[in-house]
Write a structure and sequence with these properties.
six-stranded parallel sheet; alpha/beta; two-stranded antiparallel ribbon; Rossmann fold; 9 helices; about 45% helix; about 230 residues; about 15% strand; globular
Length: about 230
């Protein structure tokens, strides 16, 4: 069995800014931070890391208590934000997921910086949640490499004895390939950290040319070329 791990924002869908709106509304209402610090990057990072940086930037301790306080407020506002913002599933996503499932030898999971419940709400809103049986999420780990390791562990648990193994040269063994698909250099780097082959797609905020600097195994303008992705699975 092969494993395919996909990012969410900028890879599977765009929410039209709903996630950042829910972040901003929570910081304003619950932490008296009226405006998000513009120097804090969102793309390709975990929710936990983003929140820690935002709180630090505004002089608030990024404690466990404040993380849980933020999380409750954010999740309480996310559904409304999704309804208020115009987003979309990105080109080729539905077709690729269907093609992967039809193969019968690919386990499809998530590798995302979103917290699990945030991921579920976004993907449910866009009718994609049912494709994913497992994943790695941004609830605990700040670094994407930690999320990648958690995603791979979740995949192995899901697959049981059918799991692939990673060889000494960093590639999955003959038991199956591990493929990571994402829209940022962070996705490429975290994929490499678990010995995965990487597909970079320029549907987020990073150009095709910049993604190519990360030396992914495949770089695409969007996921409409599902055959190119399927070709990575031997």
């Amino acid at each position: 069995m092969h494993i395919c791990l996909l990012d969410i924002d900028g890879t599977l869908l765009l929410t039209g800014g709903a996630g950042q709106a829910a972040f901003a509304e929570t910081l304003a209402a619950d932490f008296d931070i009226p405006k998000i610090h513009t120097n804090v990057a969102f793309a390709g990072r975990s929710d936990r890391a983003i929140v820690a940086d935002l709180l630090n930037a505004h002089g608030v301790e990024p404690s466990e208590e404040n993380w849980q306080r933020f999380l409750a407020g954010y999740l309480g506002r996310l559904d409304d934000a999704l309804a208020r913002h115009q987003g979309n599933v990105l080109p080729g996503v539905g077709e690729l997921l269907s093609a992967l499932a039809d193969r019968g030898d690919v386990a499809i999971g998530l590798l995302t910086g979103n917290v699990r419940e945030g991921a579920r709400r976004k993907l449910t809103y866009y009718n994609l949640w049912h494709w994913f049986a497992f994943g790695g999420f941004g609830d605990v780990h700040q670094e994407r490499s930690g999320i990648a390791a958690a995603a791979l562990a979740a995949a192995r648990l899901h697959l049981g004895d059918q799991q692939p193994t990673v060889s000494a040269n960093g590639r999955a063994s003959s038991h199956g390939e591990v493929i990571v698909i994402g829209d940022t250099l962070h996705d490429i780097n975290c994929g490499r950290s678990i010995g995965a082959r990487c597909v970079a797609v320029a549907t987020g905020h990073v150009s095709l040319e910049e993604l190519a600097t990360g030396s992914p195994d495949l770089v695409l303008r969007n996921l409409a070329d599902s055959q190119a992705v399927l070709g990575l699975f031997k």
